[in-house]
Amino acid sequence: MEKREIGRSGIMASGIGLGAWAIGGGLWWGDNDDKMSINTIHRALELGINWVDTARVYGFGHSEEVVGKALKEISRHKMVLSTKCGIQWYDNRGEYHFTREGHDVYRDLSPKAIRRDLELSLKTLETEYVDVYYTHWQCKTYGMIPVADTMGELMKMKQEGKIRAIGASNVDIQILKDYVDAGQLDVIQEKLSILDRKPEAELLPFCEKYGISLQTYSPIEQGLLAGKASDNYIAAPGDVREGKFWWRSENIPEVNQMLAGWRDLTEKYQCTLANLCIKWNSMLSPEINVLCGARKLSQIEDTAKSLDISLTKEEFLRMKKDADALIQRTGKTESKKYCR
Which of 22, 56, 100, 225 is deepest in the core (most CB within 10 A)? Predict the structure, then answer.
C-alpha cells in the first residue's frame, strides 16, 4: 500500500484510510456487529491500511469503544489513529449543531471543551496518545472562539505527547489560514468526491502550497458511486443518506447512467466502480489521503485494491468530464449537510 506523509508531521500513513463513522452504528447507520468491525480494522492493517479515523460523536462514543477494542489486540505503533474534538452533548455550551438519539449536540472548540474531549477519547480508546487530533466542526459564528485559543490548547496537547499532529475538519479558507497562522497544522478533512469537489477551488491549492494533507471523506457518496443502488431507491427516514442531493429519487438514475458509461474501465482494470472512484479521488493531488468507510471484511478487502489501478491521465479526465456534465445537468449546488 502506498504511503504518504501526513503534512510535515513525519507520520507516514497509507494512501487510503479506514473511516469508522459507520462502526458507531445508531440511527445514522443501524445496528452493527462489533466483532465484525474489529475484524475489519485488523484486516485493514493486514492489507496495508494503517490509518483509522474515528470521532468522539460517532455513535456517541461507541465508535471509539470499538476502535479501542481493536487496538488492544495489536501493537499500538502499527496504527495511525485519528479522532476528533469539539462536538459535545454533555452540556449546552457552544453553538447548537443538531439533535440525534435524544442528544442535543453543540459545537464547542473552547480549550476547556477540547481538553475534556481528549481525555475522554484517550480513556475510551485505551491509548496514551492520538496520532492526529482533529477539530471536528468549526463554530458557526466566526471568531466566537478564536482559532488561536483552540490551537494554543492543541499545541499544549502536542507538547505533552498526547497528540502527535493537529488536524482541522470542515473548514473554509479563512479558518484554514487562521489555523496556519496559529501553529503547525498538518491535515484537514473535507468531503470530496468526483461529484462534489468543493475543496478543489481554494482549500486544495492552499494545502499544496503549505504542505498540508487533505484527507477526503465520502469519496463514493456514501455508497452511491459503487453503482449498487436501484434507480427507485428511497432512503429510510433517519438514514444518513436521507435528503442528500445525489440520493434524491430524480438524481439516482442520472448517476447510474454515468456509472454505466464507465463499465469498460472496470472491465479493463478488473475492478469495481467504487475502486475506480477512490482511485480518481487519490489522483487529484499527492497531498490527498482518501478516507473510506468500512465495517465488513468484504468492504475493506475491495477498498484496499483501489490504489493499485493504473488509471491513465486521459481516463481520469474523461471521468471528470462525465461528472462535470452531470453536475451541470442536475444543477448541483454546494452544501454542508453531512452531520459527521
Answer: 225
Distance CA 293, CA 300 (A): 8
Cell numbers placing 258: 454515468
Residue-wise burial string across 142-160, b where 16 or more C-beta atoms lie within 10 A, e elsewhere: eeebebeebbebbeebbee
The phi and psi torsions of 52 (rounded to 5 degrees) equal -115, 125
pTM over 0.90: yes
For 189, other C-beta atoms within 10 Å of its C-beta total 28
pLDDT of 99-111, one tens digit each?
988 999 999 999 9
Cα–Cα separations (whole angstroms), residue 328 to 81, 191, 196, 231, 333: 38, 19, 12, 20, 10
Phi, psi (rounded to 5 degrees) for 173: -65, -35
Residue 129 exposed, middle or buried by CB count within 10 Å (0-12, 13-18, 19+)? middle
% of the chain with per-residue pLDDT over 90:
89
Q: Which long-range contacts (CB under 8 A, 24 or more apart) does 267-270 make?
A: 269/309, 269/310, 269/311
210 catalytically annotated: no
For residue range 280-297, what is the model confidence (pLDDT) as tens digits?
Answer: 999 999 999 999 999 999
* Model confidence at 242: pLDDT above 90: no
pLDDT digits (tens, 9 = 90+) for 19-30: 999 999 877 777
Q: 71: closest CA among 25, 43, 38? A: 38
Residue 3: all three cell numbers together: 504511503
Q: Are 319 and 262 spatial neighbours (Cβ–Cβ below 8 Å)?
A: yes
CA distance 196 to 216: 11
| Active-site choice (58, 106, 134, 179) | 58
